[in-house]
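Input.
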Amino acid sequence: MKEKYFDQAAGIYLRPMTWEDTDEIVRWRNSDFVRKNFIYQALFTRESHENWIRTQVETGHVVQLIICDLATDRPLGTVYIRDIDRQHHKAEYGIFIGEEDARGRGVGTATARLMLRYCFEEEKLHRVYLRALAGNAQAIRSYEKAGFVQEGYLKDDVCIDGVYCDVVRMAAVNTAQV
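Output.
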């Protein structure tokens, strides 16, 4: 996969997630920076992630990949598609950059482009969609650069810590597909 899904300019490649990535993913996902940008903000545990692998990844409902540094192979974060709908050829996109030194340098945008290519080429999806907290302007800009377009703005869609938050819905469609 490294040979196919890499971005030389951003210095990253994607590889399949393994059970050995669990502790890293739990650490990243529980960091304040990552957690505050997620709609679901509860803390993760090793057990909950292992359950995710068994019930979602291994059953084909989720494809989860690790974002790695091209030069050092160091894991930087993770990207996934979930709720894969094979009948309608669509799935929901998610990402988080766990390593602080990998943020703000185009890794998220490059990852989104690579993942969209993977979704369209390997998974044969027609549509990949996402939800982002409206206040996460950096992520929304990154998604737009990668090819996602805003489709909706949901006022007071989620309640986080007793505060209602707006959510932006975005999607990318495989226009090369007939």
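The domain at 6-173 is CATH 3.40.630.30 (Aminopeptidase).
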